[in-house]
Amino acid sequence: MALRYVERYATTRGRLATYLRRKIRERGWEGETAADPVALAEWMAELRYVDDRAFAEMRAGSMGRRGLGARRIEQALRFDGIDEQDRSAVSSMLEEEATTSALAFARRKRIGPWARAVADPALRQKQVAALVRAGHAPDLARRIVRIEPSDDPDGAITAAGLA
Fold it and tell me: Are 91 and 61 in contact (CB under 8 A)?
């Protein structure tokens, strides 16, 4: 089951061990010794069938392109069972792309320069809250929300110009 799972899905040691525990609970175990899903997941990692750091980089890149911030990505990686060492290796990449990611989120949600009209103060607070829930820093969220809508938002705002 473990080999079939790693063949079909990009996964981590933690996710693989959780999957195996669930399957053992559902189907039962009739072996002489107790099943050890954690040891099997570690063995799969030694064989390089499972690579937590590569998974973390792939997942962080994907979530960043969707516009999610560092805190939200960090939380997802922790949930996926990525250890602190691999998460910290990815965090430098997240810091470099923080502004680009926040702008991608703002574009997708039509916030700031991509809004159809100037937002009133109550709507601006909601937009800041949406950016913060997506994992972005509050000060960055406020800077993006304060930008007035323009006729050419894609040409008017860049990550370098905002930083």
Answer: no
Distance CA 153, CA 163 (A): 16
**What is the greatest pairwise CA distance in the chain?**
71
Residues 6+ apart with CB under 8 A from 141: 102, 127, 128, 131, 132
d(CA 141, CA 67): 12
Q: What contacts 5, CB < 8 A, 6 or more positions away?
A: 11, 16, 19, 20
Give the whole-angstrom CA distance, residue 110 versus residue 149: 9
- 77-102 residue pLDDT tens: 999 889 898 888 898 888 888 999 99
Dist. CA 71–CA 108, nearest whole Å: 19
- Listed in sequence order, the DSSP H helices in 51-136 are 52-65, 70-79, 84-96, 98-109, 121-133
What predicted TM-score, i.e. pTM, was given to this entire model? 0.77
Query: What is the token pair recorded at 12?
Result: 């981590």
Nearest to 13 by CA among 40, 47, 35, 32: 40
Give the number of other CB atoms < 10 A from CB of residue 61. Answer: 15
